Amino acid sequence: MDETMADDNLRARLDKLQNILGKKITLDLSGRSDRVIPGNRETQVPSWEDEHFDLKMRQYETSNDHDAETATYMANPIKSPGTYKDIDSATLKIGQSVDEEISFCPWHAVVHYPARFIGKANKPRAQPFFDRVLEGKTWDFFYLHNPAEPDQKPCLLVPTAQFVGFLKGVNQILATKLVIPGGPNKRLFDLHFGVGGTPRPRYLLRSRDQKKLHIDEWPAANEEDLRVYKDAADVHRELWLSEWEKTKQHSFPDNRGGSYRAEKNREARLQMLSQTQLFLGLQGARDPPGKPVTFICVDIEAIEVAPNPVSEIGIAVVNSERLKGIAAGPSGANWWDFIEAHHIRVKEYAGLVNYRFVQGCPNNFDFGTSVFPRRAELVDTLNTTFAKYANGAHDVVLVGHDIKSDIKYLSTIGFPIDQLPGLIGNVDTQAIYRAWKDGTKSPSLGSVLVDLDIRYKNLHNAGNDAVYTLRAMVAIAVVGLHSAQDAQLLEPS
């Protein structure tokens, strides 16, 4: 279709719209620019704003609700703002980087813009547009890995020009004045990468009139990006990291509070990991602050048949005072020998072995000798065992893998472990593992040990599991250190 025919077609559709609205609508075609893919002059590539306009026209023609405000938006295509350079992604291939002059904003900042940057009066009016942010729109998505953590999930970005265009479209319908926020918050929506040859966002996909964003698999970090980042001048790496940190500087709660709660939970996990490192003397000083800390790990095994009575209790203990002046070594392995272990088996259930859901091995305690109190003696046995470690002389930190489950099981037998003398807090190895990996899944103890390259055997024996959980805690605390200064603490003085 040549340019004359295309304009005639557009005018015909405008005439139809005018007849419906009963008023004249004008469209300035002088500013339209149809871009051509090099090497194929007959294939015209519409601009991002033109695609919005054409799609809105098609939606209106098939809609039963011919709202006058929406029609005004449809008949006035969004013009790309001059302050943000737009991009034509039609010629881009997946994984291709773009000009460093292109400004980007994180997709999560776009989605949660109303929660943070729209006032109470206009937020209810604007929120529906953001709830359906993909519908009737075209977005070009880019991804960017952090070269310092290439295995982590990349950041999802869109060109700032497209978001500004989206806001202008909403403003046309609602007669609002939504803009990129000013002041420090502007930085989040105006990110530039690539100074000094450092990594730039890479093209991922184009979403056109979708209800939901589908990303089946994230591309792996580009090897060239890792190389150029490593070879870049210090000042350029620092500039790159300063931009990267802006993508993480805000949390954006949604209407249901889900994202807000998720971010708060993430912060709590990170705090738990930091506190564990502090208690172990791994953050800036070899001596933990205050009293020495005794870490007491518990693991419970219950019979898999209802009423699921407790059959094994594993206890593993290490005291921070005994670790003073000893280099932790790789994954903290030099500290493992200081772990004391106990394995308590209820005599009435000693002949039962789980096999339906997990393969139990109660007879294979590898770190000492099991004891067999009767069910009626179990609480007394626990009181005697814990009295050796939780007697007020030291602060106590309770450790477990999904520790809430273990605490609940102990309460069913009448042992309130959360009332131990000197107890100052809990460490959940599932939680600190997720903090270290920045993950969303709660892994099994076995998978955590595999990831930490810790050899193990005879899991699902409560005594063994308690020991391995404490080893995992130490390993996560050690490998979770980030700075070279912290890493020096692992070496002998």
TrEMBL record:
Domain of life, per the record?
Answer: Eukaryota
- Entries under InterPro entries matching the protein: Gfd2/YDR514C-like, Gfd2/YDR514C-like_C, RNaseH-like_sf, RNaseH_sf
GO terms for MF: nucleic acid binding
The Gfd2/YDR514C-like C-terminal domain extends over: 294-476
Pfam families per the UniProt record, alphabetical: DEDDh_C
Q: Which Gene Ontology CC terms are recorded?
A: nucleus
Name the record gives this protein:
Gfd2/YDR514C-like C-terminal domain-containing protein
